[in-house]
Amino acid sequence: MEFKKSLAKYYIRWYQDCLNSVKYCEERNQHQKAQEYVDSAAQYKKIIEDNKEAIEFFSIGDNAFLRDTALPKEFRGYK
């Protein structure tokens, strides 16, 4: 899974949703489905950890949709 600036504001929510889904599936003895959510949560967690500052920046207003040249240097080059 690859970080995309246009999705920045969703990664934390998706991570939390996966954790909630793991709990839900475990309560219903759906262990295989729960494991799939665990795997997805791990991917989202890695994206969040690796791109924390970018997620914070691109989650504000329309920052994710500004031209690269209008962005601060540290946030240029993101897809």
Describe it.
- The chain has 79 residues and is an all-alpha fold.
- It has one domain (5-75).
- Helix content is 56%, strand content 0%.
- The protein contains 3 helices and no strands.
- The longest helix has 20 residues, at 31-50.
**Low-pLDDT windows of residues:** none
Count of individual domains: 1
DSSP strand tally = 0
Shape: elongated
- SSE succession: HHH
Strand content: under 5%
Helical proportion? 55-70%
Pairing-aware structural class of the strands and helices?
A: mainly alpha
Rg on CA atoms, Å? 15 Å
Overall pLDDT level? 96
Spatial gap, N to C terminus: 13 Å
> What summary fits the major beta sheet?
none
* Count of helical stretches: 3
Fill in the keyword field for this structure.
single chain, 79 residues, mainly alpha, 56% helix
Compact description:
By secondary structure, the protein is mainly α.
Give the SSE layout.
Elements: H1 11-27, H2 31-50, H3 52-58
